[in-house]
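Subject — a protein and its fold
Encoding — discrete vocabulary of local shapes:
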Amino acid sequence: MTTTAAEVPFSIGETTGDSTDAALFEGIVDGAYVVVCRSLDDRFKRRVYLNLPAAEKAAQRASERGVDVAIVLARLVPVRTGWVR
């Protein structure tokens, strides 16, 4: 399901909580790339990118710094949906 920016209304206020929008939100946020880096002192860092080229660039930069790096395709799942009005 593809949604254009014109189809996504946004305003500030309280959440409507309309569950019929759940499928729309899932289509918008599905398919993110998580770059996971393990530093030399065994700490993990992760960043979420919404497109593969950006994730690849981040992974390349991390690799050049000498850390272990992986790109993981992730699914973002809305916990609560509803428009903010």
In short: The beta strands are 32-38, 44-49, 68-74. Residues 1-15 have pLDDT under 50 and may be disordered.
